[in-house]
Design brief:
Strand 3 and strand 4 form a beta hairpin. The longest helix is centred in the last third of the chain and has 54 residues, at about 350-405. The protein has helices spanning about 5-25, 35-40, 50-55, 65-80, 100-115, 135-160, 185-190, 275-285, 325-335, 350-405, 410-440, 445-480, 480-515, and strands at about 50, 55-65, 85-90, 95, 120-125, 125-130, 165-170, 175-180, 195-200, 225-230, 235-245, 250, 255-260, 265-270, 290-295, 300, 315, 340-350, 410. The protein is about 50% helix and about 20% strand. The protein contains 13 helices and 19 strands.
Length: about 525
């Protein structure tokens, strides 16, 4: 063995050891006692604990994609209503009652420029009908799922959850895992809120009470009754008679922030994008002295009278908010509305006590497995076994350092992956040692037996590790939750084990051979 090769591998081994210790430090209790001046020069990453170890909540949501399709048709109908026509939505078809040629041309031009994917199904002198093609329906459903995941991810990021898991399951379901969440009810309300913001005109020509459940009068065509978010003096919520089709939606919001009124009460300040600013100016100009209701998820938060044209692209949502409610509302509006409502199919909360028990049990299992393996190798292979134990401890150190550097999440299945890595590390050394024993029994010198043992075991070790690595990568790519946790530690552990088993122990044997003739080997 060349002297330069041994020296190079020693330098590499020392470098990996130092780096691993530095990366592990933030995960150890000693990190808190270090002065801040020292911490600034050290890596700040640490090993995060998964849901099963840290506690938290797990949600399974179903995206109601059909609502996204109907919502798209409603938005088209709202745009057409601004042209002076009365659209009616039924299934996947929008029907317009138009007999005036000029209005008819406006409607056709509007559809051609804003919703060219619609297919004209009826064209008579008195009416027009447009149908949503099946291809476009499928596109909307697929987009609803993708957008729902993005919106939920944005909300969770702003909520401040570290290492969340957000994955699609099947066609229309989303798995969400939030480690460390201490207020599951608030998190659930924030994630599942549709946050569809609409600006609708109020109809003050009639008393809304006569159209509520207690009244017998049918609703006027194109109108609906919605309730306010704050109760009145008698404890009931205030009803509002509103036009069904919104004049504007929250899609045009560029920012939403918490602000404070003159009596220090929190409210949500909205800023529109350029298109929204122009539209809001036009709406307020055309409806001076009318009441404009601000509706969020079918609840009226305020319905102020428009006194004059409002320019500048800003609006306010007031409604007796607490500070927490105002912050959550700003988060959902800022991250965007869900393209379709979601239904909570499963809600599981894992307590921190269960996480502590899992950590304790997992650590006990790991320590017992490690001690038994170390003891077996030292007894059965003597000095060579102690060398293998040294490589095994390096394996564990490098594995923890790599997980901290990658900001990986440690889960209970991940601990199982670590234990499996220990077994594979021992298996590699057993293959090498048995090969060395065979060569010594055949009468070869010890130095030659060591070289041949490593050379002959090399392909077998690489083969077993590569096949296991392929399996681990596939598990990571297609697995979810716990399976991914297992795959992460197994993948990293196998890659590190190849180095420690083939290079770590070899360095020790090479150093022993250089210092003495090594006529006998304790193996």
């Amino acid at each position: 063995m060349h002297k330069k090769n041994v020296r190079g591998r020693i330098v590499l081994l020392v470098l990996f050891t130092v780096l691993s210790i530095l990366w592990i430090l933030p995960s150890l209790p000693v990190w808190e006692s270090l002065p801040s001046s020292v911490k600034t020069y050290l890596p700040g990453g640490s090993i995060s604990l998964g849901l099963d170890l840290r506690g938290g909540m797990s949600l399974t949501l179903q995206v109601l994609e059909d609502k996204a399709v109907s919502g798209t048709l409603d938005e088209i109908a709202a745009g057409l209503s601004e042209l002076g026509v009365k659209p009616a939505v039924s299934g996947d078809t929008i029907t317009l009652a138009v007999s005036d040629p000029a209005t008819r041309k406006k409607a056709l031009d509007w559809v051609s420029s804003r919703a060219s994917y619609l297919k004209k199904s009826t064209d008579s002198p008195s009416s027009l009908a447009f149908t949503l093609p099946k291809k476009e329906t499928q596109r909307i459903r697929t987009h609803a799922m993708t957008q729902a995941m993005e919106v939920i991810r944005n909300r969770i990021d702003q909520f401040g959850v570290a290492e969340p898991v957000i994955e699609q399951q099947g066609k229309d379901r989303i798995l969400i895992q939030l480690p460390g969440v201490t207020d599951p009810e608030r998190a659930m309300a924030l994630i599942g809120r549709t946050a569809r913001l609409e600006f609708k005109l109020a109809d003050d020509s009639a008393d809304p009470a006569q159209f509520t459940n207690g009244g017998k009068t049918p609703l006027p065509p194109g109108e609906e009754v919605l309730y306010g978010n704050s109760p009145s003096k008698n404890g009931t919520k205030v009803p509002y008679l509103l036009k069904s089709l919104p004049l504007m939606t929250g899609d045009m919001i560029s920012d939403a922030r918490v602000a404070f009124g003159q009596f220090n009460e929190p409210y949500v300040s909205l800023t529109f994008n350029s298109a929204g600013s122009k539209l809001f100016d036009q709406i307020t100009k055309n409806h001076v002295k009318d009441r404009l209701a601000i509706v969020l998820d079918k609840t009226v938060y305020s319905a102020p009278v428009i006194q004059e044209e409002i320019s500048g692209g800003q609006a306010q949502i007031t409604g007796s908010f607490s500070m927490k409610e105002a912050k959550d509302l700003a988060i959902v509006l800022r991250s965007g509305a869900l393209p379709a409502p979601v239904q909570i199919l499963q809600n599981v909360t894992v307590g921190p006590s269960l996480g502590k028990d899992s950590i304790r049990a997992g650590l006990h299992a790991t320590m017992i497995a490690l001690l038994l393996v170390l003891l077996f190798m030292a007894v059965y292979y003597r000095l060579s076994g102690v060398i293998a134990d040294f490589a095994l401890m390096l394996n564990m150190l490098f594995l923890m350092g790599a997980m901290a550097a990658l900001h990986a999440t440690l889960t209970l299945p991940g601990i199982a992956g670590i234990i499996l890595t220990v077994g594979m590390g021992v298996d590699s050394n057993v293959l090498i040692f048995e090969r060395i024993r065979e060569e010594i029994r055949s009468g070869r010198p010890v130095r030659s037996s060591i070289d041949l043992g490593y050379d002959k075991a090399f392909l077998t070790i690489v083969d077993s590790h590569v096949t296991t690595l392929i399996t681990a990568v596939i598990l990571f790519m297609f697995g979810t939750g716990p399976i991914k946790g297992f795959a992460v530690t197994l993948t990293v552990g196998i890659a590190i084990n190849l180095f420690t088993s083939l290079a770590g122990t070899r360095i020790v044997f090479d150093l022993l051979a250089r210092r003495s003739k090594l006529e006998r080997l304790s193996i």
